[in-house]
Amino acid sequence: MAVNGRAGPATAYPTTVDAGSSITLQKFTITTRKLPILKAEPIDQMSAKLGIAVPEMIFGDNVVAIEHQDGWGISFSAYDALDRVDKIGGSMLQVAHSREWQSTREKKHEGITEIVKPFDWSYSTNYKGTVHDGAPVFEPSAKQIPLELLKRPDPILFFDEVILYEDEMADNGITMFFMRLDGVLLRIRDTRIFVEFETGEVIREYVAKEEKYEVVREKLASRGQDAPAQLRDPNNLSDLLPIVDKSLERLGVKWQQAPLYNV
Prior knowledge:
Blueprint lengths: L20 E5 L2 E6 L6 H11 L6 E2 L4 E6 L4 E5 H5 L15 H7 L2 E3 L2 E3 L15 E2 L7 E2 L6 H4 L14 E2 L6 E3 L2 E4 L3 E12 L4 E12 H10 L4 H4 L3 H4 L5 E10 L11
Antiparallel strand pairs: 1-2, 2-4, 3-10, 4-5, 5-8, 6-7, 9-15, 11-12, 12-13, 13-14, 14-15
């Protein structure tokens, strides 16, 4: 499976039965699909395939996809996002209750306990989407998303919010991916896709931000804001977290025009 700019299959993608909601604008179709949380059997199958325990709430059939009618497409799914999690524990955050959390992920069968191997239990992922097979791939670029264009008071034609997975980390915080690890760290991983419908240009921006928990609490206190309430809203915290990683990529979707015939 290939992600983050390389071509690969979409693990979850709308079928004709569960097509979700969509809108088509100038050969581009944006689709979102929201289905119930996975049941025990598909969760076990996903965990076995990934090689790690999955989050408490996993919406494995949910998807966000952008497609062009000539074949290009990118989608976002829970499996592909979790497949980017560190599976050897090299970047695992250490907190007082991490052992307690890990014990909740032990599998017990007929008195035999299988200890879950170490991995990044915060489920931090640098997932930027899965580019569909055979489609043009992103290349590094310095071109920024035109924020001034996005600030125009144009009507919102389509809006949706799709959750792929969520975990409360044994009451130590929350991860979505906005992550709040109480007493330790706040982290935001943000991927934005901008499509210029007229030209077929697609820009992808990935930004990773993080800051120590107490530093953010102090910043909120200096503003006179209610820290417990604000610490739950990534939109209010984004400007308080410094950027630790950023990338810009672009591609051009080529139009395939119908052949011309002389009669």
